[in-house]
Sequence to fold (400 residues):
Amino acid sequence: MSKFQYAEMPNKEGFFGDFGGQEIPPELKVIMDEINDAYEEIRQKPEFQEELDLLFADYVGRPSPIYHAKRLSEKLGGAQIYLKREDLNHTGAHKINHCLGEALLAKYMGKTKVIAETGAGQHGVALATACALVGIPCEIHMGQVDIEKEHPNVTKMKILGCTLVPVTRGTATLKDAVDSAFDEYLKDPVNYIYAIGSVVGPHPFPKMVRDFQSIIGTEAREQFQTKTNSLPDYITACVGGGSNAMGLFTAFLGDEEVNIVGVEPAGKGLDTDQHSATLTLGKPGMIHGMKCYVLEDENGEPMPVHSIASGLDYPGVGPQHSYLKELGRVQYETASDQECLDAFMTLSQVEGIIPALESSHAVAWAMRKAATLSKDQTILVNLSGRGDKDADYVADKLGL
Fold:
């Protein structure tokens, strides 16, 4: 018998163990339940699955390959590092996987506008792309700080035809973009749909986004066994809200011999207030309509958080991650801003692959861990996005 006994994930009320749910006003709960009902209906339709599968293959370019980073592995002198190349997807990251699903759902429900937040801009670009494809207006809210850091993605979103709303409230980063987008959504939740960009928020979004992203792990599990005749010893992915990680982890949860590691931003240090290590230093609380681990200040409010990677600076985390932490199935580690930069440059110069700063957190942990393992052991990293969007920022930061 497995040592990990999972509850239904989620149950009918949207809880993963003690986490998740719908901490929202009753009138909004009605809307969320309608979205859940529509999702459960549409996912059973063969024509929906066929359309999504066709788009994954011919539009996104799936399956994304698994690449053996031989030179990096040799440099570290330990475990063999493999990369699941989500950076090769159309739009350059894993985000397109769930954005296509959400856009098709919005079309099916007859919604007149899709609203979303974005941090690093990858979700914004992917959603603007998907909305252009299905012909639905798209409005993206983005913190002013992130707009200045992620200029290439801002330009792409505008080219794709979306309305970009700069957010200057609070810290002008991801949490504030979520708040701003949600305020706009509440103006007309009957006709609008809020396409949440990660496995966070009220039920059914943590479930829906996980389901659309689970193609990553489904592909990777089969590909890795075909390539190596075994399962990986470790799999790892960065965790902010946690969509790319949940996408990889889901297919491996039943494989007890596979160690699963999520990597959070230690930022400028866990001994400072400049980090986003929610699962490492946070505690159970409420944020954005769900119960999950949260970084809170002395007044019980979500803390201002920091990460060099705009897509990871969120004071909450997906409720399923919170559940898997307490269950002990997934281990959550951290990587600092400096470790992230070092991994970014190392992978670029040793393998010719420029990773997103978000993904570089997982690469950093894999590099650190590989050096402690034997050469016959393996680590599979979800390379969730490419670093085009970060190149100018990193060059300025390092004086290149």
In short: The first helix runs from residue 26 to 42. DSSP finds 16 helices and 14 strands in the chain.
